[in-house]
Amino acid sequence: MASGVSQSVPQLAEWIEARVQPSYRVAEERVIVTPPRKVIVHIATSADGYIARPDGDLDWLTTRPAPAGFYGIDAFMRSIDTKVLGRKTYDASRRLGAKFDSKTRTIVCSRHSPPKDAPPSVEFTVQPIDVLVQRLRQSPGKDSWLMGGGDIIASFLDAQAIDEFIISVIPVFIGDGIPLIARRHRHVPLSLQSTEKFADGVVQLRYVVNSPV
Ligand SMILES: NC(=O)c1ccc[n+]([C@@H]2O[C@H](COP(=O)([O-])OP(=O)(O)OC[C@H]3O[C@@H](n4cnc5c(N)ncnc54)[C@H](OP(=O)(O)O)[C@@H]3O)[C@@H](O)[C@H]2O)c1
Questions:
Q1: What is the tens place of the pLDDT at every residue in 26-40?
Q2: pLDDT tens digits, one per residue of 28-72
Q3: What would the DSSP string read from start to end of 4-21?
Q4: What is the dihedral of CA 93, 94, 97, 100, to 10 degrees?
Q5: Mean pLDDT of all residues in 14-23
Q6: 1 CA → ligand 1 middle, Å
Q7: For residue 159, which atom of ligand 1 is closest to its CA?
């Protein structure tokens, strides 16, 4: 670069700027367009709105044949890097054999001390929901899956800490049980994003949560 050696300092600065600044601009644009991390509930309910029988029984759900693609759960799993559970859902998942390995961050919300047999990869937290979600949203990463159950979903919803719901409605009435969201007077409008109908009669609804009225 014989001509480069003879460049004056201002010319050299222009040369560097012309080559370096565009990549800064690209980096800045990438930061600007990065979507914020979302908190998404992905859950199955009976057609009458329950996530489990009153005693936690899930046979109406777990004894169904698993269809190919399992209602898009694989693609969803690739979109998240954190699972958040209420303590009772954690207990139920452990009884069903869930291992909670460290590939995905697992956070269990509880107001009590963690059980002694909890895997080391599982974090128990007593943080207020708004603090927990603010920290999740501020750290870089993928979306978070709020797995349930109805009590922790209610706590998150009332803290305006849920962005979307993906609800797989199972074609069965079970008559009584744990509701999708613990009961309380609410008025939270939803925007329907999509519906998908599966061959076994399951309908999957995707909603964006709007601000409460
Ligand atoms: N159908 C489905 O797809 C599906 C999905 C998930 C779960 N389930 C079922 O749902 C049932 C459990 O639901 P659930 O509503 O009874 O319980 P849950 O929401 O799983 O857990 C409730 C517990 O979470 C903790 N918690 C709740 N709000 C909190 C807050 N604001 N701050 C800190 N901790 C908080 C408390 O734990 P502590 O008592 O330890 O303080 C509370 O007792 C299980 O039977 C499970 O199998 C079904």
A1: 455 555 556 789 999
A2: 555 555 678 999 999 999 999 999 999 999 999 999 999 999 999
A3: HHT--HHHHHHHHHHHHH
A4: 90
A5: 42
A6: 67
A7: 31
Q: How much of the chain, in percent, has pLDDT values that exceed 70?
A: 84
Q: How far is the CA of 178 from the centre of ligand 1 (A)?
A: 10
Which amino acid, residue 206?
A: R
Count of domains for the chain:
1
What range does the domain containing 61 cover?
Answer: 2-209
- To test the ligand 1 pocket, which listed residue (76, 89, 204) has its Cβ within 8 A of the most ligand atoms? 89
Residue 84 burial (10 A CB sphere; 0-12, 13-18, 19+): buried
pTM assigned to the model? 0.86
Name the residue with the closest Cα to ligand 1, atom 4: 51
For ligand 1, residues with CB inside 6 Å are 43-44, 51-52, 56, 58, 61, 86-89, 92, 109-112, 129, 147-152, 155, 178
